[in-house]
Fold this sequence. Notes:
This protein is an alpha/beta fold. It has 2 domains: about 1-140 and about 375-534, FAD/NAD(P)-binding domain (3-Layer(bba) Sandwich); about 150-370, no CATH class. Helix content is about 35%, strand content about 20%. It is built from 17 helices and 24 strands. Strands 1, 2, 5, 6, 7, 8, 19 and 20 form an 8-stranded mixed β-sheet that branches. Strand 1, helix 1 (about 15-25) and strand 2 form a beta-alpha-beta unit. Helix 1 (about 15-25) runs parallel beside helix 15. The protein starts with a strand and ends with a strand. The model is unreliable at about 495-500 (pLDDT under 50).
Amino acid sequence: MSSVDAIVIGAGFGGLYNLIKLKELGLSVRAFDKAPEIGGTWYWSQYPGATSDSASEIYRYRFNKDALQTDVWPDHYVSQKGTLQYLKNIAKLYDLEKDIQLKTKLVSAAFDSASATWTTTFDNGEVWKSTYLITAVGIFHTPNYPKITGLEKFKGPVYHTGDWTEQYDLKDKRVGIIGNGSSGAQILVNIADDVKQAISFQRSAQYVAPHPNKAVTAEYRENINKTYDDVWKLVDNHPTAMPLEHQTTSALSVSPEERERIWEELWDKKSGFSFMYGVFGDIHSSEEANKELCNFFNKKIAQIVEDPEKVKKLTPNELYGKRPVTLSNYYETFNKKNVDIVNYQFTPFVEITENGIRTTEKLHELDVIILATGFEVVDGSYAAIDIKGRTETLSQQWARDGVSSYLAIGDTGFPNLFFSVGPQSPLGNMPPIIEIQGAFVSGMIAKAEKLKKENGGKPVLIEADAEAKKGWMDLCRMIANGSIFRNIKSYIFGNNGPRGDDNAGIFWLAGYANYRKAVEDAQSKDFAGFKFLS
């Protein structure tokens, strides 16, 4: 049995950052990842068109400004290949590769009270001991494979966008894409010109805002380099950790004509997330304001899409409250003769046969089926791991109490176990969320190590206080119940996968800026809400 001070599970954005922070403390650290390459989610999602929906200049770590010069980005939104290479470059730059063990999957982890250590067991038979355990397993990692009648009968290949690690030949194929979130929209737009036929199968239509994924000019890059600190000030004060001005103006405070003019300008500029968060401050909180934006989107769909039947099927009938999909040329793609849509609200799904997908209308014959059905978000990655704390497993505790945490960083009954982007993390641009959580965790560990030294080497346990957790979860529920997201079926409340509805929501819905303030407030009060036990 091998031992180190700390073990990190995952080698994506979260794993690498926590590895860097723990090594800075002088600890012995080992990171493990089941993938054969560094990169986390960006290794597993190599489907055509896979792209970040955060601007390239902030979809990276803020602590390494040199990378702006040495690891430049060619486009406004970084591709899967670009992100994967960036993470590999970071690992090399900070000499992390020797501390990362790939092709090694965590099977179980158990806390031993007597020795105050975690014992981790891996699929290759290795067993390791550590004082600290950090899980950076990713919130978009475990593919959601829905139970679809007849799927096993289909005689052609079935691919999932969340488990796509090689390039498949789709040329001149009849392709059915099940799902129309970010991955479903991206892959549709990117394969349309190469396939014989592409059909988007949807439970409900999706609002898709255009974004400007074009080449970055030298002038733009130079300006970002000069003003990078100001860019991050915008990020720090924005609900989704984006480089946008935080808005408080109500969409209802201006005339209908002015709203229309503003939104038309955003559309022409392909402004992506600005529709939800960049101009008006109440799109995500006021149902009336949200409906006005929905009406605008529906007008644009009718203007762009030429076939009235496709317009009808592509027009959503719910609020704009799922995770925003931003992609250029989505609606325009449906004007191609070889691209069609099947909306189950009009022609319900019946079954998958060996030759395709049957609805109440007809059998749609296909050569390939692509599942763009998303992920078992947040806790899906934990469900496959047997993590046992003081008295029970994490799965048992979450099954009883709901998927929960304190500050999205730790949970009661699991000392010295820390999450990177755990339950109730904010929705938004992930790198800054990862950094603020990782800095908090490394700060707590630094304190514990200092106390350990002062106590003659006696181990110190860090554990979320039960009352602090209750207060945090009550706050999450209050925020969730007052949000328009509450009334929309999506993964935000855990109801796109096997878990079903989660009352508190699996995300913090008060925005990144408020989350950052909550974490910084706890840190300024000597990590309030966490107990240091010896």
